Amino acid sequence: MVLNKEIGEWVNINDYTQSSRAGSPDSRGTHGYAQQDSRGPASQRSSISVHSHASAFPLPLPTDKKNGAGPYGIGLISPVENQRKHVHEMTERRPVRRGTVSRDKPIEDEALGSIVQRLMTPATSPEACTILDLTGAGIRNLAGLSQITSRLEAICLAGNKLQSLAGLPTGLVCLRAPSNWIRFSPNDQDRFMFARELPHLEEIDLSANEISDISVFSGLRHLRVLELNRNRIDSLRGLHGCRRLSHLRLRDNFLFSLDLVASESPLLTTLDMFNNRLRVVPASISEFGQLAKVNMVKNDLEKIELFGTAAEGIRELRLSENPLILRHNGGVVDADQWIAKFPNLKTLYLDVCSVRQLSRLGSADDNNMQSVVSADENSGWPSLFNLSLRGNALRPPLAIDFSCVSNMKNLYAPDTQMSLPRTLPPMNYMLQLVICNAGLTQLPVNMGAALPHLRLLDVSNNPDLHDLAPILQLSASLETLKCRSVGFGDAMIGPSPLESSAHGWGSGELETFPDANGAGSSDEQKMLKLLSKLRRLRKLDFRFNKCTADLYATLSSSISGAASVLDGVLSPQVPGTSVMGDGGHVPVTVPTGMARIDEEMWLRQDNAYVLNLKMTRQTETLRRREDYRFAAVRLLPRLEELDGIKVGQH
């Protein structure tokens, strides 16, 4: 913006430049700014308004390449970087002397620590600013900020060098200053009290600092969100008077117990205590009446107290990576006790918790667990919809009474040795079932009737799983099927699973599809003909099996991970390695215990593999690969992805 003296208004610099080139001020009568009043008053046309979210970092405007200065502005030192940037002043412009050259000059070290140096630039208006972002500006102190920003409501000071918050305006509502050197200690003589200095704060994020005293936040009546991750907090007793607090995040601290007084934060809904040193999930957690989400992953939990008043508000409970939490009862999850304590629990994470058995009290013994089917469909855990049991029991296999979880929608048990029952109870709500790397030898024979709405099935890395017939029963609903490194390819040696009348399936319907190669077809195409009954399939992953071993690049350990890929709403929630199964026969093309694939890296490796086939003139393998993909597109009309590679429109 530049001041036009003739009309007495601030105008756009580009318009001013064009009008100046058109002629003298007297000749702009019909082309000047007198005819632009229809666009509205100048205050509305200004790019910086009193309520705009002005940034302290102005962007440079185009400059003259010859002399380094703009046509109507002089070169100014940017307060952000140690280089000269050319901005246009919001004051009367002075002509630049011909022949002058702007030279880069480093900013003095004293200027780096002053926030005033960041804000007092000709292109900004800090007194009208409401939101300020000073991330990574090298600021060491906030002296003078309250005098020049009277309307400031939110500020971000992440990645600076602050040791104190003195100088912030008292009307601040949102404060974000992670990754600084701020320190609040109980031994400080002149402690900074937020209730006295910044009483209107609603959101605070001071993660990655050196805070050990949480009592400095006491008395903030409007506080709703408090994030203090990666600090030095070891107790919550000092937090009082925050009656509107709803989200409390305390990741990576030194908390040994949940000693927060429930009456001081009655509206708390989210409690995140990931990676602390908690030993017990106390029964007093039910005193937080509004608490809905609890995250205690990766602590030192040895016990969960399931007695006392029911925690009716908790909907999501994450207790993963606490291998000793069920040690006191032999790794048994008693559904009756959990239902009594958490009657409305919908999502439960028990990854790497040494779970051995999930059943109702007295419903069955350990030797007969896999054949249990409850007669009452309404019995069990009616509220539990999502359950994650990744990386649990190895030997003996995990035993699950599926009648306890008949209302479940998503079950994730990868990297967990388990044995499925011969028949499943009706599970009409099940949408996703992930049981890869589970040491399976068979699938339930009634999967079609028990799982009528199943959309995703992942049975990868189960090399002893040969029977394909139960999967073919899911033709009405299944959309994603992942069968990497299974034994289905071995079935092509003997008679087709569909030819057996024991399963009640005939092969006449499938014989109507002609062979892709006329006289005969390869093993992978025979497998596709069997899978063609799944007419709703959109994604099929059949890599690293016997019949497709030479069609794709082998899976090397450099592109594999330790955990399996979990799709859907229950994706892996925290970083960490899972406990993998030991033993078991694994095909040569798949490294033992490897279930996760870096798809991008594998695609690059597969492209190199195809290029090598072409260079070595292995035309037979290339032809089989093309015929295999062509047959998949023809037999599966809704297919969108085959073996990790997108399929074009068809």
Describe it.
α10 packs parallel to α12 (619-635). The protein contains twelve helices and 29 strands. With 650 residues, it is of the alpha/beta class.
Condensed summary:
The protein is an alpha/beta fold.
Percentage beta strand: 5-15%
Say how many strands there are.
Answer: 29
The number of helical runs is: 12
Structural class by secondary-structure content: alpha/beta
Mean pLDDT across the residues is 76
Oligomer classification? single chain
The dominant shape is globular
Percent range for helical residues?
10-25%
Instruction: Give Rg in angstroms.
Output: 33 Å
Low-confidence region ranges: 24-112, 363-378, 491-520, 561-595
Largest sheet: number of strands, sense, barrel closure: 18 strands, mixed
How far is the N terminus from the C terminus?
Answer: 55 Å
Task: Provide tags for this entry.
single chain, 650 residues, alpha/beta, 18-stranded mixed beta sheet, 3-stranded parallel beta sheet, 12 helices, globular
